[in-house]
Write the structure tokens for this entry.
Amino acid sequence: QVQFVESGGGLVQPGGSLRLSCAPSISIYSINVMGWYRQAPGKQRELVATITNGGTANYGNSVKGRFTISTDNAKNTVYLQMNNLEPEDTAVYYCNARQFNPYSRDYWGQGTQVTVSS
């Protein structure tokens, strides 16, 4: 079982920035894809961003151009830099780790709240 240390959520005004951090309990080299998903009240969980262990990033349409996902292998941490935040970005953000071998499986963090409000 993989566990995570997530941090960086909070309250920010529209147009502001936050950076989320997620450190898995296993080596990031053993994880095929790291990512962030979010879930707003009454809505389904949706993709925010993912990054492969080869460095390829993928973003949800609503955050393209505003959010950036990155990894620091030395710190065994994945980051989500969120700029120009909008009220619609308000949600619980979940860190995710996906492994493909010997079979596909997902691990989830406990989530961190991001609230964008004036």
